[in-house]
């Protein structure tokens, strides 16, 4: 087994048979920064949540790269080439990671609301009628879908045209990716509703296989990639974050988020991200375990 990559929260190994093994660590990251704190049980809950969704999607005929779950925090998956030179990707390239993250939003929240406040996105952009005042927490008229970079140091928002050119996609292939995201999210929303959850948004990643057929990969439907709210509280007018957004809000409240993004906008050295206080670590760990059970309906 050969170690080939260290991600923000996963270690990746290549096995002798050419498949990959993901090891889910207890690391946690926000704003493209790895926090110098570990969250007990986080790696296992992410791995087991991803397994739950992969097995469900397989039963519904949606192709993905999952092969086998290895308790407690490992997963075997099909291997795919990572091509960092976009110029080498074209309409005939096969067996490669599509270098995009596809984000689909169903509610106004998080960074989307930040961009609305800054004027970078208008109400009309989101499908609201002219003159509408966008309010945090409200449902969007239509799913709002964006592509961002996958292989760059910081995620960069792309137009549909930029995404297709970068990833070597035809219009039809890009449309197929969007259709698959909406289909997967419909399954997630249906399952979440059974357990009193609202699935607000999430990201998906894909590859092409040796026949240039679309394959869903990496992880999704977890607390790291997706945003969840409590449905009963939402009906009462309350929005309670049940995802990694809780950690992002911690750093917003301390001022670190503003300091970091000011440095990025001005091209200055980025400040190191502080560790989480012990009480926050404990609360986040408990959240990951509780949400694993709630999302999957299984005991941890």
Could you state the CATH homologous superfamily? ATP-grasp fold, B domain
Mean pLDDT: 95
Radius of gyration: 19 Å
When the domains are counted, the total is 1
Q: What is the overall silhouette? A: globular
Q: How are the secondary structure elements laid out?
A:
Layout: E1 2-6, E2 10-14, E3 20-24, E4 27-30, E5 33-38, H1 42-59, E6 66-70, E7 74-77, E8 96-97, E9 100-107, H2 110-118, E10 139-149, E11 157-158, H3 160-167, H4 171-194, E12 197-208, E13 214-217, E14 226-230, H5 231-235, H6 245-254, H7 256-266, H8 278-296
Antiparallel strand pairs: 1-2, 2-3, 3-7, 4-5, 6-7, 8-12, 9-10, 9-12, 10-11, 12-13, 12-14
Can you offer a commentary on this structure?
- The protein is α+β, with helices and mostly antiparallel strands.
- The chain has one domain: 2-Layer Sandwich (D-amino Acid Aminotransferase, Chain A, domain 1), CATH 3.30.470.
- The protein is 35% helix and 26% strand.
- It contains eight helices and 14 strands.
- Strands 8, 9, 10, 11, 12, 13 and 14 form a seven-stranded antiparallel sheet that branches.
- A hairpin with a 5-residue loop joins strand 2 and strand 3.
- The protein is globular and about 50 Å long.
- The chain starts with a strand and ends with a helix.
- The model has no long low-confidence stretch (mean pLDDT 95).
């Amino acid at each position: 087994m050969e170690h080939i990559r260290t991600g923000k929260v996963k270690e990746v190994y290549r096995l002798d048979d050419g498949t990959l093994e993901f090891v889910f660590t207890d690391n946690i990251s926000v704003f493209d920064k790895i926090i110098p704190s570990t969250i007990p049980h986080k790696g296992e809950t992410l791995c087991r949540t991803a397994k739950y969704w992969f097995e469900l999607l397989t039963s519904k005929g949606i192709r993905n790269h999952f092969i086998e779950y290895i308790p407690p925090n490992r997963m075997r998956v099909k291997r795919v080439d990572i091509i960092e030179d976009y110029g080498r990707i074209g309409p005939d390239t096969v067996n490669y990671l599509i270098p995009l993250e596809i984000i689909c939003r169903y509610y106004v929240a998080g960074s989307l609301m930040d961009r609305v406040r800054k004027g970078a996105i208008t109400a009309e952009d989101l499908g609201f009628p002219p003159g509408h005042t966008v309010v945090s927490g409200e449902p969007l008229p239509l799913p709002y879908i964006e592509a961002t970079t996958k292989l760059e140091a910081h995620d960069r928002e792309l137009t549909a045209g930029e995404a297709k050119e970068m990833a070597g996609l035809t219009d039809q292939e890009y449309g197929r990716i969007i259709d698959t995201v909406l289909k997967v999210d419909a399954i997630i929303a249906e399952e979440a509703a059974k357990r009193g959850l609202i699935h607000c948004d999430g990201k998906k990643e894909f590859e092409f296989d040796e026949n240039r057929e679309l394959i869903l990969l990496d992880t999704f439907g977890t607390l790291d990639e997706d945003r969840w709210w409590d449905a009963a509280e939402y009906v009462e007018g309350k929005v309670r974050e049940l995802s990694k957004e809780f950690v992002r809000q911690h750093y917003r409240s301390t001022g670190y988020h503003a300091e970091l993004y000011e440095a990025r906008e001005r091209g200055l050295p980025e400040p190191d991200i502080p560790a989480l206080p012990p009480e926050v670590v404990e609360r986040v760990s408990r959240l990951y375990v509780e949400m694993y059970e709630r999302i999957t309906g299984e005991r941890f």
